[in-house]
Amino acid sequence: MKTKPSLKQLLKENRGFLLFILVLFASRSSFADWYVVPTGSMLPTIVEGDRILVDKMAYRLEVPFTDIEIIQTGQPKRGDIVVFNSEKAGNRLVKRLIGEPGDRVAMLDNQLIINGIKVRYEDSDNALIKTEHLDNLAHSVQFIPVAESKDNFTEVLVPKGHYLVLGDNRNNSADSRYYGFVPAKEIQGKAHKVLVSLNPQNYYLPRNSRFNLPLI
Question: How far is CA 161 from CA 48, 101, 158, in A?
Fold first, then answer.
């Protein structure tokens, strides 16, 4: 009659697989991760069903499975696409970083004004999409008409240790206009590219043209 293997024996026989799983999850926790984007708040840059690669070492290195910082590796910059765990929203969000600590930011009829300087916008072939110039970064933003858009706010000062973020789909994004400034400690990493994209409106078929698509 065969006896059941002990827990110690099972661990010994499967230590290679268990080590692989541990390294995989530790890597996702501290070095790089992927995130499935469920909404269109970052259209046209990121679409629903994109699986984006997030560099979790872009700003700091943490002890795996914790929020304990080992070393700071960089600072979030205007124009970065950041992923953060929003305590106020109770969710993980991905948005465009607009205001850094100490910046003065305002919006007038969907035009950003940063430190007293109006951000430049260029028209495109699509009347609803414009090119927004943030410092040396040019990217597309979308302005779909909605009943109650938050397309105006008076000048605010971004406090120390916080950031102001907006979605590229400006009239359809729950961002700093709703949840306020994002604490630096909530930012998990910087989105670099779309790894894979599956279309939820079309039986989750792959969008091959978006595979390995750079976001920056």
Answer: 30, 6, 9
